[in-house]
Amino acid sequence: MTDHTTVHAPRISVIGTGYLGATHAAAMAEMGFDVVGVDTDPAKVEALSHGDVPFFEPGLPELLQRHVETGRLRFTTDLADAVAVSDVHFICVGTPQQTTSFAANLSYVEEATRSVAAALTHDGLIVGKSTVPVGTAARLRSLIVPALPEQVHAELVWNPEFLREGKAVDDTLHPDRIVFGGASAEAEALLRAVYALPIAAGTPVVACDLPTAELVKVSANAFLATKISFINAISEICEAADADVEQIAEALGYDARIGRQFLNAGLGFGGGCLPKDIRALMHRSAELGAFSAASLLQQVDEINMGQRQRVIDTTLDALGGSVLNRRIAVLGAAFKPHTDDVRDSPALNVAAALHLRGAQVVVYDPEAGTTAKRVYPTLGYAEDVETAVRGTDAVLVLTEWPEFAEADPAALARLTRGAQVIDGRNCLPAEEWEEAGWTVSRLGHARFSAPQPERVLRSVGTASRGRLLVDA
Ligand code: UGA
């Protein structure tokens, strides 16, 4: 690899312009580099070229527009052109779950990496950012060798990304840490030049080998998922023991070794990352014979999926054992607030399950209505909270958008047929809602601390009901 750093600032290509790639490309332009983003989807390239972001991500349209205008950032479908004018090539394509197993589908990463290698017109640094199973990068290294043109050298390193949707811009410009996997001294120098600004601002760099870098990423997501499932397991005990999971989270959070973040009990995690990443790691762990890791992750997944059932059971409880022909408002469709992403959304999963049980479900989400409708066209959709709530027998809050916590519970209560709310995210000011006449059910709280015999009888027929009957 030639030493581009001494000649000019490294020029950058970003292959794949989804959440990760579009944000990374815009952030690199913000850091002062010339950047070309590449995607196979002409419509996406067209939109991004006009500074339009085809998904909702706060702050990204402004950043993108700024740098499309400054000329530092452009988008193309022509990978060869982008590679020819660049020195550092970031691979940011998706690694979705395979349709027939928990393993990651690596075909896009393999194709992108091979194509970059084949298109190189001068020495280059290929930087993997996509989330991949441990061992992938080493295989990609051997894959690019036959693809490289003669006299051209390329080094492949791994530099995982930790950005969160909804906070993608800030996370990319100000990361908590930067990981360089498998970089030679020369490649590390080039990467340090690329990340000069955050490094100068104090972001720590961890330089390690390839498998370690790959594993850092998936371990981080696995730990976050485990933390959420841990508090959700505790929330189950809270319900049985009349304890309060939110106060437990608060008290645990004061312990610096534990920390308060990711201890919000409720409907559990979804999205395009945590679920598929823990499953891919589960699969890879089993392949490698690391069965304790695989079984831990299996349990994390099971607890998480069980939360969706618990919300469904709670709704059945609230409506006397059946939702057939009952009208239900589901507030929230995105997998978390501040995004319009509905991939593996727990909220939509519950909404669809209730619909399949015969409920009339009306969904409202401040940003994700359109994306949700594409995935679940058979559900009803409303344009605002009031329309969704009007005439309902129960209201489910399944994504913690600030708009829901700030709603006027008294005004909403007057619109309903039965003021029952299931707060699946523990995000409502419960006392205010109760004072306004609502019956509030929350996961991880003493829902049935004073069980009413009538309700207990109605519970027969579901697992949680059966348990309740015994307890009663
Ligand atoms: C996650 C990681 O947080 C990022 O660091 C990582 O870079 C990203 O995946 C990725 O691999 O690309 P993201 O998918 O945007 O980011 O979502 P999170 O903010 O992690 O939330 C995941 C889910 O957990 C959401 O459904 C959220 O509602 C849920 N959650 C979060 C809880 O149920 N409880 C909590 O306390 C926190």
Briefly summarize what is shown.
With 472 residues, this protein is α/β, with parallel strands linked by helices. The protein is built from 21 helices and 14 strands. The strands form three sheets. Strands 3-2-1-4-5-6 form a six-stranded parallel sheet, with helices on both faces. A six-stranded parallel sheet has the order 11-10-9-12-13-14. It has a two-stranded parallel ribbon with strand order 7-8.
Structure, explained:
The N and C termini lie far apart (72 Å). The chain has helices at residues 19-30, 42-49, 60-70, 79-84, 107-119, 136-144, 168-173, 185-194, 196-200, 210-241, 245-253, 274-287, 291-318, 346-356, 369-375, 385-389, 402-405, 409-415, 430-435, 453-458, 463-471, and strands at residues 12-15, 35-38, 73-76, 88-91, 124-128, 154-158, 178-181, 205-208, 327-331, 360-364, 380-381, 394-397, 420-423, 439-442. The strands form three sheets. Strands 3-2-1-4-5-6 form a six-stranded parallel sheet, sandwiched between helices. The longest helix is centred in the middle third of the chain and has 32 residues, at 210-241. The radius of gyration is 25 Å and the shape is globular. The protein contains 21 helices and 14 strands. The relative contact order is 0.09. It has 472 residues and is of the alpha/beta class. The structure holds uridine-5'-diphosphate-glucuronic acid (UGA).
Chain-wise SSE layout:
Elements: E1 12-15, H1 19-30, E2 35-38, H2 42-49, H3 60-70, E3 73-76, H4 79-84, E4 88-91, H5 107-119, E5 124-128, H6 136-144, E6 154-158, H7 168-173, E7 178-181, H8 185-194, H9 196-200, E8 205-208, H10 210-241, H11 245-253, H12 274-287, H13 291-318, E9 327-331, H14 346-356, E10 360-364, H15 369-375, E11 380-381, H16 385-389, E12 394-397, H17 402-405, H18 409-415, E13 420-423, H19 430-435, E14 439-442, H20 453-458, H21 463-471
Parallel strand pairs: 1-2, 1-4, 2-3, 4-5, 5-6, 7-8, 9-10, 9-12, 10-11, 12-13, 13-14
Helix pairs in contact: 1-3, 10-12, 10-13, 12-13, 13-14
The protein binds uridine-5'-diphosphate-glucuronic acid (UGA).
